[in-house]
Please model this.
Amino acid sequence: MVDIEQHVWGATPEGEAIILYILRNERGSEVRLTNMGAAIVSVKFADRNGKIDDVALGYRDAESYIGDGACSGKSVGRVANRIARGRMTVEGVEYSLEINNGVNHNHGGSKGFANRLWESRVETNRVVFSLTSDDGDQNYPGELNVEAVYDFDDEDSLEVTYLAKTDRTTPVNMTNHLYWNLSGEGSGTIHDHELRLNCSKVLEADATQIPTGRLLDVEGTPMDFRTFRRLGDGIDSEFNRIRDFRGYDHFWVLDGWQKNILSEIGELRDPKSGRCVKVLTSQAGTMVYTGNWLSGGCPVTKSGGRYEDWAGVAIECQNYPDAVNRPEFPTVLLHPGELYCQKIVFRLGTF
Model:
C-alpha cells in the first residue's frame, strides 16, 4: 500500500498554496509531486546495491517551479512541443499563438499548463491534479477541462494519465517533461546512459526544429536506438541537425502504434548504478531531449548547485510536433463529446 503525505511547500506571488505530495511504497521508493505545473519533483529508488537516490532533476524550493524554462518534471499543454510560426487553422478559423521559442510557439505558451497552479486532491493511492483552461486561454479555442492523474505502486511503477474534455474543437497534445539522471540528480552528464527505443523512424527537422513532414529511417544513423546505444556517442553528430541542436531534441515514431493501446516505447538504463526505467505509452511517439540548454537557465537545484548541459534526459511521450498543421500526421484535434485519455508509465528497476 502506498502512503501519501501532503504539505504546504510554498506560495505563489498571489499567495496561493503550492502543495507537495509524497508517495512512498513498501520498497522505500518515493515520488514527490507538486500542484505547480502538476509536476514530478522527485523520484527515489534503489540502485543495484540497494542505495536509494533521487534520479529526477528538480529544484530546491517551491517558488523555483514558477516559470522555469526547463519545465522540469511538469505537465505540458495544451499542446506540447512546437507549432510552426505560432499559426494554426482549426475548423476554418486561423489562430495566432505566442512566439516563445525562436520563431515558433512551444509547450502551450509562456502561461501554458506547465506554469499554472492546478487544483489537487488525494484519491486513495493516487494524486489527481485538475485545471480549467478557459476559451481563448493562450489564444486556443474552447474551454478545456484537464486532469493529470499520478498512480504509484509497490512494484515501482509510476503511471501518468492525462484526461481532457472540450466544448469546442481544439488541439490537445500533453506530455510529462521529467528529466532523468539514473546515477542521481546532480551527478554529472547523461552521456553514459544507454537508450533503447522501439522506433525505426524519426521525424526530419528543419533549422527551427519543426518537422518537414519526412520520416527518416534510423538504420545506420546516430538515431538508431533499436538496440541499446550510449547517448554520448551520437550527441555531436551532424545527422538530422543533432549538432545544430547541441544534442538530441527530436521526435521518434513508435513502431506499430495503435490509438489507445498502451505499449512499450523503450528503456533508459545507467550502467554505473544499474538502474533502468522502462517507458510505456499510448502516445504515437516520443521526443528525446538530452538537456542541451540546461546550464544558466535553471534555478538552484535540489543538491544546491546548478545543472549543466546534458545533466538529464527527458523522454517526452506525445503526439507528433506541429501535427495541427500536418493533416498527414495523427490528429491532435479534440472534439466536443470526446475524451482525451493518454497514459505514460515509468517502470523503475535495475538490471
User: Anything to note?
Assistant: The chain has no helices and 28 strands. Residues 50 and 350 are 10 Å apart (CA to CA). The mean pLDDT is 97. The longest strand covers residues 340-350.
